[in-house]
Design goal:
single chain; alpha/beta; Rossmann fold; 2 domains; six-stranded mixed β-sheet; four-stranded antiparallel β-sheet; 34% helix; binds adenosine-5'-triphosphate; nucleotide-binding; transport; ATP hydrolysis activity; ABC_transporter-like_ATP-bd
Length: 292
């Protein structure tokens, strides 16, 4: 079992901006969702974990080793799946993986071949190994991305905005692949999409303005909201009133009629109770934080 332990991590950039503020997390094998809006500090945290920048204070341990000092250890055990990675034209899937494997330090040719074949089969691309990666569909590129991230048998995999731009079928296939992998390694999924966390993660944290606002199992966080989410159809001109007087966590149009959902400990008059969803957890936590 792998363990990533982050304790009271702070990061202040040179311009004085405090991007991480007292982050503590304890992450084990499985899919961990790091959920937050743009600018929340997700990339700052990821870059600090993988040793691309040093924290101002605090500690990060991976399998009991201090990786703030020993960045080589985490780099050796890391797979990274960026949202979009540049691929050279005219290079086929096999050759590109071979090239990346060499960069990752897998010097033995036979060993590289075994790994590449194993991984291309795992992501269902072995039959496409002679095709140029840049001509792959979005879903195939993503699956190729998983294969390259898994080269060298990493114990921790960081995935950035995993399903952006995928159609539902590709998204499902990709999600199944990720969740299979995560039984043996830590997969950290950094995203602003509640949907990805809901589908994939057994543990999650909500981050904003460099701080952790809430952590736990999605199911339990949803349960905490039982009896606290309400909705109502309203007229357009009433919206401002409700926004001032209640904690509005979402609004949508249903058959052209605005409907608002609010977080409230008491039953607000005229509202109907709503079964809580992870979206409600996310937006209620963010709105409480924004009103501070
Ligand atoms: N090198 C830097 N110097 C100063 N400020 C920075 C630097 N890098 C990031 N920031 C600021 O830190 C904050 C957090 O940025 P970060 O990229 O970590 O957020 P994020 O959650 O990953 O957002 P996104 O999803 O948009 O990438 C932002 O306000 C950003 O402008």
């Amino acid at each position: 079992m792998n363990r990533l332990k982050i304790d009271n991590l702070n990061l202040t950039y040179k311009n004085g901006y405090k991007a991480l503020n007292g982050i503590s997390l304890d992450i084990k094998n499985g899919m961990f969702g790091l959920l937050g809006p743009n600018g929340a500090g997700k990339s700052s945290l990821m870059k600090t974990i993988v040793g691309l920048q040093k924290p101002t204070s605090g500690s990060i341990e991976f399998n009991d080793l201090d990786i703030v000092e020993k960045t080589d250890y985490i780099k050796k055990n890391l797979g990274f799946l960026p949202q979009d990675f540049g691929v050279y034209p005219h290079v086929n899937a096999y050759d590109l993986l071979n090239h990346i494997a060499i960069l990752k330090g897998i010097t033995n040719k036979a060993e590289r071949h075994i790994q590449i074949q194993f991984l291309l089969e795992k992501v269902n691309l072995w039959n496409f190994r002679d095709r140029e990666v840049h001509a792959f569909s979005g879903g195939m590129k993503r699956r190729f991305g998983v294969a390259q991230a898994l080269l060298g048998n990493p114990q921790i995999i960081i995935v950035d905005e995993p399903t952006a731009g995928l159609d539902p079928e590709e998204r499902n296939r990709f999600n199944t692949l990720l969740s299979n992998i995560s039984s043996e390694v830590i997969v950290i999924l950094s995203t602003h999409l509640v949907e990805d966390v809901k589908n994939l993660c057994s543990e999650m944290t909500i981050i904003n303005k460099g701080q952790i606002l809430k952590s736990g199992k999605p199911k339990e966080l949803i349960q905490e909201l039982n009896g606290k989410v309400w909705s109502k159809s309203i007229d357009n001109d009433e919206l401002a009133f409700y926004q001032t007087n209640l904690n509005v966590i979402s609004q949508q149009l249903i058959e052209r009629q605005p409907q608002i959902t609010v977080y409230s400990l008491e039953h607000p008059e005229g509202f109907a109770p709503v079964e809580p969803l992870l979206e409600h957890v996310y937006f209620s936590v963010l709105s409480q934080n924004n009103s501070l």
